[in-house]
Specification:
The structure is a homodimer of 175-residue chains. Chain A is of the alpha+beta class and 175 residues long. Chain A is built from four helices and six strands; from the N terminus they run αββαβαβββα.
């Protein structure tokens, strides 16, 4: 029994090491999802606003869509396809009724951003991501990328909007 | 009769001139509402994101709240009261179901920004706007300010949130 127990421990320890190494290799500095290798663009929270949206259903979030300077220029000049270097960020927060605001309005009508949900990026590189319409996809929460399997449906989902270079969000004109 | 008619015409003409001069004086270059004198801050659409929200009821809009650099710094450093020079912009668009997005999701769950509704500003100047908590208020649509009467309820509505320097919107942490 002791021999089998020892062998089992050794196998489990080896398995742990293999899993650890695989994860370390996949995630590099903890920011790079394995398929597209997209990292969190520094300073993305300072980018300019493209638009806002609300998703019900499983997401039940409220979101802002921001763009780097290349994205904003392309949007404002209605340039399609988006040039290489475009990055579009989708920041999502839980969709929360604001009791504080409703008190002032005198009725339940106000919904605000609650806890952060996740941030997604679309990165345009027509050569590197040729197989997915020129776009690399990524999703992070608290700086950590999601599992590779969850990024695979990204591009197929964007295919119906090929006429706008696979980008759903339209630029919202200033009021 | 001709004398009375002439007199009436003259009075009406004078009235027109007086109304015109009053309007010109009030609105300056067409951007300044009369109470607070706040004009549209140049480049406000390029400001950084504070948060997002959705209002049902009469507004039925989806909105982004942006801040100038002074506002963003104060928010991120949790500085209260906001320093003079702070400007907070609230951009609103009509709240529209996206048929395009719903097709992809396979169900009605997506709401996006439609036509622009209006943009509001809160400008901090603790001396100039001492009577209203240090804040000046403004609202514009297509570059035109709304009528003075519609700005009067702004401050009373913000009084319940005096503990956060009369500002409802909280800074949304990055996902």
């Amino acid at each position: 029994m002791r021999g089998i127990s020892y062998l089992l421990s050794a196998v489990l320890a080896m398995a742990s090491v293999i899993v650890y190494m695989a994860r370390a290799s996949e995630q590099a500095d903890g920011k790079a999802p394995p398929i597209f290798g997209v990292q969190i663009p520094p300073g993305y929270r300072d980018w300019k606003l493209i638009s806002v949206a609300h998703e019900e259903g499983n997401n039940n979030d409220i979101r802002a869509i921001l763009g780097n300077d290349i994205a904003i220029k392309a949007y404002r000049e209605e340039q399609l396809p988006f040039p290489d270097g475009t990055i579009i960020a989708r920041l999502a927060w839980s969709y929360v009724a604001s009791e504080e605001n409703n008190k002032v309005f005198g009725r339940a009508q106000s919904f605000v951003a609650g806890a952060p949900t996740n941030v997604q990026f679309m990165v345009k590189d027509s050569k590197k991501y040729a197989a997915t319409g020129g776009w690399g996809f990524a999703q992070f929460k608290d700086g950590k990328p999601i599992d590779e399997a969850l990024l695979k449906p990204c591009f197929p989902c964007h295919v119906p909007i090929e006429s706008r270079d696979f980008v759903f969000t339209r630029y919202s004109p200033s009021p």
